[in-house]
Amino acid sequence: MTSQLTDSSAPPAPAAAPSTPKNSTPSLREAFRQPKSVWAIAFAATVSFMGIGLVDPILPAISSQLDATPSQAMLLFTSYLFITAIAMFFTSWFASKVGVKRTLLVGLLLVVAFAALASGAGSVEQIIGLRAGWGLGNALFISTALAAIVSATTGPSAGAIILYETALGIGLAVGPLIGGLLGAVSWRAPFAGTAVLMGIGVLAIVVLLRKEAKPAHVSPLAALRALSHPALRTLALTAIFYNFAFFTLLAYSPFPLEAAAAAHGMEFGALGIGGVFFGWGTGLAITSVFVAPLLTRRLGLIPTLVTTLGLLTVLMAVMSLAHSSMTGLIVLIVIGGLLLGIMNTALTETVMEATDLPRGVASSAYSGVRFLGGAIAPAVAGPLAAATTVGAPYALAAGALVLSILMLIMGRKHLAAVGSHEALTEVQEAEAITAGDEV
């Protein structure tokens, strides 16, 4: 996820504006009064986040038109997430060597190249390989985008973070919808559209982003070494099982939706799936920004995590039984988005509070591990459903969530620092939201 989110080397606000502290909370109007360079990064970030859900609506189409099994189609998520996970351990080091702007551009150019190649692919195996390159590019971009946007702002960093959260929310919500609209034309169109939009983002950053952030030196093994910290290890293990469930819902659900629609004599199609996951992404964005901070302040971080994981376990169990109901699946997927938004933010905020490690290093280590859980889920869900029943992947996801709760409870002694520190500043809380949602 966001390895550079908390880089203390980002330059302070200009001395010419002493009346506006760097961490003050700006009005919405002030938050959106930003230089063109900030808007360039925000645009590229929106498109980057769109790419997370863009592929979801076209998975059944890819499966049918390229003579691939659902299991093969879901590997588009696995290759993307696996490479993203590995890259996340080293993005902090890479950015510290080549600079933030170059890291952004390398990441964007990789996404442009691999998305464009995917649009012309002739087999599902080719797309799986190309999605791996896409994952590397996205890891490099999202790991440095917030640091760059904070660095380029001329006002309080909180204003830049509000803009970044807005880009994130729009991208998560609109990505599946755009994927559905373009996918209704052809499964190739979402890939081509991403390449074009990211290409515009590259040009915007080349022309408009002139101020170079100077991150502090980071060891290439810093994130891996961080996992020796008991608290971080506990939360990483919690996250790997949680993300297994997250990506079971995201990557597998289009296929039961299509099957349930067909059983009712309907053709759901890419546009229908895109609409459902538009609701999912909108719910996730809303609860991560507005509901999660409220719950964590009132209940505490650990109770919020345990409660939300419990509710997600029940949700997955119900989905395993209601997989033949089209209406039931739609409602449950959208509810799932609401719960996942709370969970993402609360878990990342707990990571920030639980250790005395630099937040960027802790975030890199935690994100790398949790993406591995996401990579495993699509690879398991398809074969499991083919060998057993349609509801089995959801039942397995419910079991993974139980393990996630157990990891949290068993390692709770290592999380004594959570809640004992002063409350996170509004800027740090916003960073937790953005880190948590960069799935």
From TrEMBL:
It comes from Brachybacterium vulturis. It comes from the Bacteria. Coiled coil: none annotated. This is MFS transporter. Residues 16-27 have a biased composition (Low complexity). Residues 37-416 form the Major facilitator superfamily (MFS) profile domain. It is found in: Cell membrane. Keywords: Membrane, Transmembrane, Transmembrane helix. One of its GO terms (molecular function) is transmembrane transporter activity.
